[in-house]
Amino acid sequence: MRHEIPRLAELTPSILAALGVPDASNSLDLRPVPRACVLLVDGLGWELLGAHPQDAPVLTELAAGAGPLRVGLPATTSAGLAAIGTGVSAGEHGMVGYSFALPEVGLLNALGWCRHGEQDRADLRELAVPEQVQPRQTVFQLAAESGIAASVVSAAAFADSGMTRASLRGGDYRGVHAIGDLIAATEEALRPRPSFCFAYHADLDRMGHLHGPGSLAWRMQLRQVDRLVEGLLENLPTGTLLTVVADHGMVQLGPDSLDVDSTEELWPGVRAVGGEVRLRHVYTEAGAREDVLASWRSVLGARAEVCERDDAVERGWFGPRVDASTTARIGDVVAVPRGDFGLLRGSAEPFESRLVGHHGALTDAEQLVPLVCAYR
Predict the structure, then answer these.
(1) For tag attachment on the chain, is the N or C end more exposed, with fewer CB atoms within 10 Å?
(2) Which Pfam families match (predicted)?
(3) Which three-class secondary structure state does DSSP give residue 161?
(4) Residues of the chain with CATH 3.40.720.10
């Protein structure tokens, strides 16, 4: 009997196995189906769902007796979408943060596919070709090769984004604008037999960032998510497995969070700082790693887990395997805040540093997400 919590990256291989794709690993023991849909609700943590059953009665009933998935580091959207799209963890798909180092560009903002921190947000899809940044075959490509109609239903604005091309390529992209056409497009995508559809909803995460997880605005959006799930269950074709998951949970920052940009002791020997508020990749100058490690540990103390790259890899933070191509993207030093502490960057990330809710770290509130399954 399996005792550890399954990883998010196990979901889509198990879906493919349930759809009959040869050699796909069904580690989640999903039963055979002709159609399958994964709805990813950005920011829907397992603990948050459990704390607000009155706002999500449909999801709460479906989740009864179910358990969570663990997303792994970093607990962030770029890594979660890539885990869904490739069926492997960050150490293999290489999307190791909201921003991370690439030799040809410096710090890549993975969601904007631009240089992190630059105001003009120039498009880097030609310089950092998404299919080369993340070259692994996607589950959508694998499904299509097996004769399965594969689709992605998400915001129309993301149709040809670098992140979509890197992690979700191979599916028929159906751009939508609201919950209504998300349900309609998903239903249409699942009419063929066999078929696989990935649907993405972002607004709950946005409310958590702006107003805080569990706030009134967040709870009202959770009610809309519950209606979305109910609408899918009412309209999806017979013979469909609907799974509802998330890419991460969220925490609200405490008042003692630190502005890295204004803390001079942290910068000697540092050439760049990537990641995000709840996980920082610290890239060091040649020969400075030990000194940087010591200074970050001294300044942050018990408020964060700070270790060298090799130590982070050895601990399995980025998954059971880390490819050589991924290693250089991980910081020479990795800093993961504990509790509700955050590592802000007021100058380089003014918008992000003003947000209320954040994610990325190792707490259960960020790591655990629902695995809700419903057979229609």
Answers:
(1) N
(2) Phosphodiest
(3) coil
(4) 8-252+363-375
Angle 7-140-39 from CA coordinates, rounded to 5°? 55
Per-residue model confidence as pLDDT tens digits over 159-217? 999 999 999 999 999 999 999 999 999 999 999 999 999 999 999 999 999 999 999 99
User: Where would I find the beta strands (DSSP E) of the chain?
Assistant: 35-41, 68-70, 99-102, 106-109, 114-115, 149-155, 172-176, 195-201, 240-245, 251-252, 258-259, 270-276, 279-284, 304-308, 333-337, 343-344, 357-358, 368-370, 372-375
pLDDT for 1 equals 45
Tell me the CATH number of domain 8-252+363-375, given options 3.40.720.10, 1.20.272.10, 3.20.20.150, 3.40.50.1000.
3.40.720.10
User: CB-based contacts of 234: which residues, under 8 Å, 6+ apart?
Assistant: none
Is the pLDDT confidence value at 227 over 80?
Answer: yes
- Beta bridge partners, 337, equal 304
Close Cβ partners of 236 (under 8 Å, ≥ 6 residues apart):
35, 37, 186, 187, 190, 242, 376
Query: What's the confidence (pLDDT) of residue 87?
Result: 98
Amino acid making up residue 273 = V
Instruction: Convert the pLDDT of each residue in 327-343 to its tens digit.
Output: 999 999 999 999 999 99
Q: Which CATH architecture has domain 258-349?
A: 2-Layer Sandwich (3.30)
* pLDDT tens, position by position, 15-49: 999 999 999 999 999 999 999 999 999 999 999 99
